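Task: sequence in, structure out. Protein: DNA invertase Pin-like site-specific DNA recombinase.
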Amino acid sequence: METTQSLQKASTIPDQIITEPDLWSYVSPYDKAATYARISGEKNSNSILAQIELAKDTLSKEKLILFDIYTDEESATKLPYRDRPGFKRLLTDACKGEFKTVIVFRRDRLARSFEDFKEIKTIFKNHDIRILFSNKGEYQSTGDVMSDFIENIIISMDEFEAALINERTEAGRIEKKDRGEYQHGGSIPYGYKIETKKISERRKLINYIQIKVQTDFIKWVFESYLKIGENNYSMDTLLSEAPTKGGPKKKYTSAMINRIIERSVYAGHMFKHGTSKKIKTLFYRDSDAACLQLDMEMFNKMFAECSNVDTIIPLETWHKALIKRFENYRPQKEKTKNYLFKDMLFCGNKDCKENKIRLVSKKYYKCSTKSCFSIHKDAVIETLSKQIVNDIVNSEKAKNHLKNKINNIESTIQKLDLEYKACKTKTSKIIMKHLDSINSSSIPEELEYATKEEKEYQSKILEQQSTLNKLNETIYMIDSFKPNFSTTNIVSYLQTDIDLAQNMLKEIISKVVLTSSDQEGNRKQKKCEIKDDIVYGEI
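Result:
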């Protein structure tokens, strides 16, 4: 009798969760409900607490007992349901058969994606779980074909609305940047407060106004920072002398000072839309690598002047502080540009042990041994072109090599495809096991691993297919140009588009060993000779 009264009491107070195990044994899963709430904004009417309060009303009307409350604070657009911690916990309990009703404010709280919502519905349907909406205006499906059709349209519109909002937000942000209007991402930059000015019915301008006591601190930081290295003045000295008034209410650290120095807004500038936000890319060193320089051309490409910000320090001061900030930075050397026969040429002269031959000064191919030869690039390209023409037109060595490669890749793709199909079958079995079993808590991890394995196979197949397409394209190009092949034509073709030609050569040639000899007794005029046949295969 006491147990029955306790159950009746619990059913009339839906915001209480029954925690006594002996009471739950008397309650059918069909009498229990889970509440799911997710926040996507800061409006009070749509907060997690507001959603839970509305869910309590639904619990009371439906005479259900609250099993548990599940919440998430992640965006459904950015994070799918299976990655949200609260919803993952709900699914685990749902699979255990703990409840048969889920109460949610609106459909878009569950998912913003049509595919995600469809998957959630399938999981709930397989576990005989119904969905109730606490929002009075939300369409309540009856489970028939027409209801499902209407529900699909609604979730599709929700997905479209989310995409449209994101697109408009991004477009508005870009438009503001183009007008030179600075926008802070998280918190307002230290040293500023904002004032909103109404420009029109649809447009408001946010101005960033200085807070004097704070901007005085910012100015002091820059002035002191520029003194580092002079008269034994160091970062430690700066930190010890930092004024207690006006500074951030935190412990002063070198990292904090460096963050202040790197902020372009203090100099009235901001990053342009679509540019890299790596300040280090602004610097280079002069020829003797002694002095770090600021690349003004790069700076003008990356930064724009703010029209709505009170400038605290002059731009020149910021530039000087940045140079000091990165004075120990060593910009990476520019990668060697592409050139014909790169990484394919080796020296065949004695004592060189087939050292690599590289293009230097854009004019000469030179052996990496200092005392060895260097040959003008035109002589090398002409000699190799003659041999390539002969090989392709007469012996078709290169083409046969490509065909062998194609056969190998096709075999690899077939093997990967079989493994991929087996993996898909395995995934399907796991899904069926997941839907049929209500007690296995390890299934989601198993499914996640199988899905990851599927994607890896897809990626490998696409990679091999891409290589196959390139090889077929190379053979097509060889066949297309074959009637017109001559040394003159191929030299002209190779030099028209270096990158395209080099990519084709890499597919054909693996290794060429060169030697040099004096031409007609003149040691300054050297000609290039191919020591052995061009290697059309792996080294």
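The chain has a mean pLDDT of 77.
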